[in-house]
Amino acid sequence: MFYTKTILNKYPKEQRYLLAVLQDIQKKYNYLPRGALIMVQEYFDVPLSKLYSMATFYKALSLKPKGKYIIRVCDGTACHIRGSALIIDEIHRLLNILPGDTTEDGNFSLETVNCLGSCALAPVMVINDKYYGNVTPALVRRILKEYGGVNCEHIQEKG
């Protein structure tokens, strides 16, 4: 928990910085480890339940470890109408994960989001900070192959 101590030392002991600290911890570990939450509890002198409440309220925070690559599929109106469900189905087929899951090897996590603000490119998918627009199931296979998580050669192409 060395990084947690380093993060905590950047902030004054004022509760208004709680969310920023949790976001920094999330960014470092890709989730909020229990040990880190206990250190935050002691530093800010707040109940652990308050930290868990924040961790479950904000979608950007997670109590479960996330993958190296976080795939976010937009399911806003424009993306939904233009086939975001097909994108999610293809990711499920290729990686065997549903929204909220992480692959067993810890490489990929899948999330759906309400809007990524790129409606003109619908459907949109983001891996970490890289946006992909006009995504099709075939494009999903090519994109995931770029990240090395899918051996697409054994998967039969859809017609």
UniProtKB/TrEMBL annotation:
Gene3D superfamilies: Glutaredoxin, NADH-quinone oxidoreductase subunit E. It comes from the Bacteria. GO terms for molecular function: 2 iron, 2 sulfur cluster binding; hydrogen dehydrogenase (NADP+) activity; metal ion binding. InterPro entries: NADP_DH_HndA-like, NuoE-like, NuoE_dom, NuoE_N, Thioredoxin-like_sf. Binds 1 [2Fe-2S] cluster. Its cofactor is [2Fe-2S] cluster. Its EC number is 1.12.1.3. [2Fe-2S] cluster binds at residues 74, 79, 115, 119. It holds the Pfam family 2Fe-2S_thioredx. CDD domains: TRX_Fd_NuoE. Keywords: 2Fe-2S, Iron, Iron-sulfur, Metal-binding, Oxidoreductase. Belongs to the complex I 24 kDa subunit family. This is NADP-reducing hydrogenase subunit HndA. It comes from Koleobacter methoxysyntrophicus. The gene is hndA_2.
